[in-house]
């Protein structure tokens, strides 16, 4: 039994008056900046917090998320892993009717690439008629940035979790500007995708056979220390990956090695997709722990922002996707922006991206703001996460691990929503990228998930 | 500037301040020249209905929003003053990138020895559970916590081997550190387990007056000894004091436990090596003052006269009825038992404190009650001193006592070390015409003798 002695320090939460009374007695206090939880969550919070499984379930889920060891093991044609007649897309499920401009543009581009339509009008008609099955990437162990459209002749990174054995896929990054993932489908977009199918994909696949598995956990840890946050800044990670791949590409595909390496080198975001697959395989390791309130996916389809929770299987909980706040390219402005889109929020879900902003002072030039804002963003995320990542560390915070493992109950209690760094897609199909910035997820996605978790707790005990 | 009062209601979205802070700001605004009425409050259902009753029309808002409602000849100045006071109540951040902890879970990352929870009751569970899960003892000052949550917290606390004090625990002292409403007490050999905050304050204040200090005062909350909760915290607290080398005698202050629980408590008491004095607040049992005297005798220490200050003789008609106007529930119950009248109102009860501060901080309800008395009434009331309580109760109440038509008897619960200055308070109430006692039981007997 604890011996009774004067507390050296008292945590106070609630009335400031009682904190003052301790200060008046020269007792040091740690006042909590408490505020009421998100409206309508009080009852569900109590239920979920009272679930006796929760502490161990969350420890297990967060432990699996942070102990995952993602390795890049291959590059494969999507047709090898994808059912025929199916296109994958970013975010929670979406129909053509509800799809936004860039999502429609990317789907049209995929139809044209696959030769399923002669022109954009025919493509749109076929898609509207349900001629192609549309499924979320997340349901197929995959993720895709922005529109996230994956069709059979696209190539995907294959990342395996050496710790828990899972596998995840993510498409290859096309570069910036007018690209399919931002909804562009012009001739230059399709031409690049065909080159990726014929040249880039096979060359990388052959190169990876030579290198063997590339340890992405270590690579990401290094990139964080070199100023990337692994969502909107991937310059260091791309350089590190290129360094790993270059000799093998030269040996495996000498005829095209220069084009391949020049392509990778010309795209600072080339690593993003490999990093997303690493994040996906890590968060998937934390799935399906009964009673856990850990968020295992956050994803947007350009219309809805959706979350999935470890204790709630594959169910999606959604709210309207917001329009990012950030800096715009050229003459574009907020009126040109599409609502938030893409599976790249899997980086934040795994403790990178907006959560690791303090590691990336350079990012503030890209998304707007000051270095102190980046530090503040990362620090605030420790308030809603369950763990600090043992390998992903932030030099500027004394090598503290990044905040990782978003807990629904902490989001509801603090009202603090995950900080998301993102690219901004043009509203009109075919425009491409118009900017980059920060976006606030809709609170209701988290509120709905919490209410569902509370219902599932009652069902398990009544 | 026109003298016709104008009205303004502002909504500050997502701005939170605790109810005590807001009560003080509201009072300060109401005291400004030209202000007819003012209320600064969170937009809870209750506060919105109060504001509507005051005739304000309230814009769309939710309980996470702050409302500033003012009726005044110069509303602009009043709102500016509200903002000035609200800003002053916020602690300044040491660095721009500093992140204050937003939950107890987060605050407990830094080493700490105890958690003190005083959020609104419906939200206290999460914070208290954080404390228990972090292996920290917790005092829950909040009331209105559902009993299933209390039971669950105390069961989890058993598993983590920590003490949960409360909910509705008004006072505790651990190793000289006063928590909640706490008197300044000299260190000494008496350990107190209390299911009643003001009851414990009465006992320890009298002990202090007798020169005998306390080791620890462990509050357990008014419902701990109910069947639902089963006395989990009381039993733990008794064991802790039994093992505490500084504690030579234990005083158990409580309403009579539920019969099922009483058996468990008696069994537990039988196993203790430390002698126990019971102050159980029931007919035929010693009152709080007598229990204190028993404790002193058990320690072989002399029992002094309890200080009191008689009233100046007044020219009132003979008294007919006693009206209890209490802030402390246990003190009120003791008064009712001794005077034999049921007309004792506990203004600290949930029914009166929902959406407003405790009467030990907010005197307004009792000030109003005093003004409604008759010249044939004897008002019996408690004034409780110590950390956390009204910094100058005489300033808020003595004027109302002086103006009240009734004869007033005050039970002044406090010690000479309390920040309010016991003697100054006693003098002020006496000056206002009241008889003042440091023993609530003696105050009640005196009131009865006036009939």
UniProtKB/TrEMBL annotation, chain A:
Gene3D superfamilies: conserved protein of unknown function from Enterococcus faecalis V583 (1.10.10.660), Enterococcus faecalis V583 domain (3.90.1710.10), v583 domain like (3.90.1700.10). Pfam families: AllG. It comes from the Bacteria. InterPro entries: AllG-like (IPR009499), OXTCase_su_AllG_h-dom (IPR024033). This is DUF1116 domain-containing protein. It comes from Nonomuraea longispora.
Automatic annotation (TrEMBL), chain B:
GO terms for molecular function: succinate-CoA ligase (ADP-forming) activity; succinate-CoA ligase (GDP-forming) activity. GO terms for cellular component: cytosol; succinate-CoA ligase complex (ADP-forming). InterPro entries: CoA-bd (IPR003781), SUCC_ACL_C (IPR005811), Succinyl-CoA_synth-like (IPR016102). It comes from the Bacteria. Residues 188-268 form the CoA-binding domain. Residues 78-110 are annotated as: Disordered. Coiled coil: none annotated. It holds the Pfam family Ligase_CoA. SUPFAM superfamilies: Succinyl-CoA synthetase domains (SSF52210). Residues 325-448 form the ATP-citrate synthase/succinyl-CoA ligase C-terminal domain. GO terms for biological process: tricarboxylic acid cycle. This is FdrA family protein. It comes from Nonomuraea longispora.
């Amino acid at each position: 039994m604890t011996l009774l002695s004067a507390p050296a320090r008292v945590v106070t939460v609630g009335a400031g008056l009682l904190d003052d009374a301790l200060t008046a007695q020269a007792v040091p206090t740690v006042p909590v900046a408490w505020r009421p939880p998100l409206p309508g969550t009080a009852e569900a919070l109590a239920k979920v917090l009272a679930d006796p499984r929760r502490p161990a379930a969350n420890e297990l889920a967060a432990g699996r998320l942070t102990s995952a060891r993602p390795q890049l093991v291959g590059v494969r044609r999507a047709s090898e892993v994808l059912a025929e007649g199916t296109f994958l897309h970013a975010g929670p499920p979406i129909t053509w009717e509800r799809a936004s401009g860039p999502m429609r543009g990317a789907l049209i581009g995929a139809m044209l690439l696959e030769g399923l339509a002669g022109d954009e009008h025919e493509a749109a008609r076929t898609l509207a008629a349900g001629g192609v099955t549309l499924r979320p990437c997340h349901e197929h162990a995959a993720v895709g940035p922005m529109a996230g459209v994956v069709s059979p002749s696209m190539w995907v990174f294959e990342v395996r979790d050496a710790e828990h054995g899972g596998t995840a896929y993510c498409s290859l990054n096309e570069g910036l500007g007018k690209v399919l993932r931002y909804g562009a489908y012009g001739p230059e977009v399709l031409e690049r995708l065909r080159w990726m199918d014929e040249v880039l994909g096979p060359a990388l696949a052959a190169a990876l056979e030579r290198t063997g598995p590339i340890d992405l956990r270590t690579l990401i840890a290094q990139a964080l220390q070199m100023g990337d946050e692994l969502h909107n800044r991937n310059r260091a990670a791309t350089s590190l990956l290129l360094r790993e791949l270059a000799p093998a590409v030269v040996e495996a595909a000498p005829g095209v090695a220069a084009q391949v390496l020049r392509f990778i080198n010309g795209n600072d975001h080339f690593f993003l997709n490999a990093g997303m697959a690493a994040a996906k395989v890590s968060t998937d390791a934390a799935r399906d722990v009964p009673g856990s309130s850990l968020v295992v996916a956050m994803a947007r389809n350009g219309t809805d922002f959706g979350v999935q929770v470890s204790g709630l299987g594959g169910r999606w909980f959604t709210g309207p996707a917001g329009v990012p706040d950030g800096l715009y390219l050229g003459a574009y402005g907020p009126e040109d922006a599409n609502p938030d889109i893409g599976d790249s929020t899997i980086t934040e879900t795994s403790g990178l991206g907006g959560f690791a902003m303090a590691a990336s002072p350079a990012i503030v030039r890209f998304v707007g703001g000051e270095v102190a804002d980046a530090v503040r963003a990362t620090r605030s995320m420790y308030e809603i996460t369950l763990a600090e990542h043992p390998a992903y560390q932030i030099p500027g915070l004394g090598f503290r691990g990044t905040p990782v493992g978003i807990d629904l109950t902490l989001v509801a209690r603090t009202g603090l929503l995950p900080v998301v760094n993102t690219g901004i897609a043009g509203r009109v199909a075919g425009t491409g990228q118009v900017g980059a910035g920060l976006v606030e997820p809709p609170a209701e996605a988290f509120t709905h998930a919490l209410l569902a978790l509370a219902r599932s707790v009652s069902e398990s005990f009544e | 500037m026109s003298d016709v009062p104008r009205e303004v209601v502002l909504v500050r979205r997502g701005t939170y301040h605790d109810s005590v802070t807001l009560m003080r700001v509201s009072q300060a605004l109401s005291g400004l020249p030209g202000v007819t009425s003012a209320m600064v409050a969170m937009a809870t259902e209750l506060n919105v209905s109060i504001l509507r009753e005051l005739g304000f029309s309230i814009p769309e808002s939710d309980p996470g929003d702050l409302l500033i409602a003012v009726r005044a000849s110069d509303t602009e100045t009043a709102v500016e003053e509200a903002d000035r006071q609200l800003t002053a109540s916020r602690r300044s951040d040491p660095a721009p990138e500093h992140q204050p902890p937003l939950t107890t879970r987060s605050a407990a990352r830094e080493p700490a020895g105890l958690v003190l929870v005083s959020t609104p009751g419906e939200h206290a569970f999460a914070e208290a559970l954080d404390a228990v899960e972090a292996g920290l003892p917790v005092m829950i000052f909040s009331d209105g916590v559902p009993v299933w949550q209390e039971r669950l917290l105390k069961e989890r606390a058993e598993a983590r081997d920590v003490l949960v004090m409360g909910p509705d625990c008004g006072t505790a002292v651990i190793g000289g550190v006063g928590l909640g409403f706490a008197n300044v007490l000299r260190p000494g050999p008496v350990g107190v387990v209390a299911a009643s905050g003001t009851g414990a304050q009465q006992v320890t204040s009298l002990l202090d007056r007798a020169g005998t200090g306390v080791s620890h005062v462990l509050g357990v909350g008014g419902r701990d000894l109910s069947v639902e909760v089963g006395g989990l915290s009381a039993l733990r607290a008794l064991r802790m004091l039994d093992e505490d080398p500084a504690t030579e005698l234990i005083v158990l202050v409580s309403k009579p436990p539920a019969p099922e629980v009483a058996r468990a408590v008696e069994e537990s008491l039988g196993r203790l090596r430390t002698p126990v004095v019971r102050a159980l607040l029931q007919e035929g049992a010693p009152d709080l003052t007598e229990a204190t005297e028993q404790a002193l005798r058990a320690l072989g220490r002399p029992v002094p006269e309890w200080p009191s200050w008689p009233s100046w003789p007044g020219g009132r008609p003979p008294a007919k009825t006693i009206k209890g106007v209490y802030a402390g529930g246990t003190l009120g119950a003791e008064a009712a038992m001794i005077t034999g009248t049921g007309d004792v109102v506990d203004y600290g009860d949930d029914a009166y404190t929902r959406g407003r501060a405790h009467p030990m901080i907010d005197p307004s309800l009792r000030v109003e009650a005093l003004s409604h008395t008759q010249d044939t009434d004897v008002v019996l009331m408690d004034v409780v001193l110590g950390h956390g309580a009204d910094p100058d109760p005489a300033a808020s109440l003595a004027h109302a006592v002086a103006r009240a038509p009734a004869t007033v008897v005050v039970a002044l619960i406090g010690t000479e070390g309390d920040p309010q200055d016991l003697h100054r308070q006693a003098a002020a109430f006496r000056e206002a015409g009241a008889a003042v006692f440091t023993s609530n039981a003696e105050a009640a007997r005196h009131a009865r003798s006036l009939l």
